[in-house]
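Input record (one chain):
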Amino acid sequence: MSKDFMKKPCKHCPFRRDVRPFLTTARAEEIAYAATNPYSTFACHKTTEYDEDDDGNGEMLVTADSKECAGFLTMMANETGVNRYEAEGFQPDYEGCYNEAYEMIDAYEEENEQGRTITPRG
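The corresponding structure, as predicted from the sequence alone:
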């Protein structure tokens, strides 16, 4: 039986403390603040598809097979007290992931101030 969530944060999860921040500060703020709302969702990038146009621009697309990001769910559980998949066995990774929006945003701001921001695909 397939779960609707990732069991643990993937290797390049932007919510992991041990992953060098790679998003713009604005994007990090957007997804971190989304985790403060128990009704928000955020698909793991490994379970989405990438739609690229002829100019190389594109966007991530959520599909029927996409799963909730474990890092996002960890932050949401800490910020809101809601573990959306607790009944299905989801265990938040409080040690490996940012637990609060400001913690994640601060890490990305610091990295961006040093001018090392990149945005990987997939």
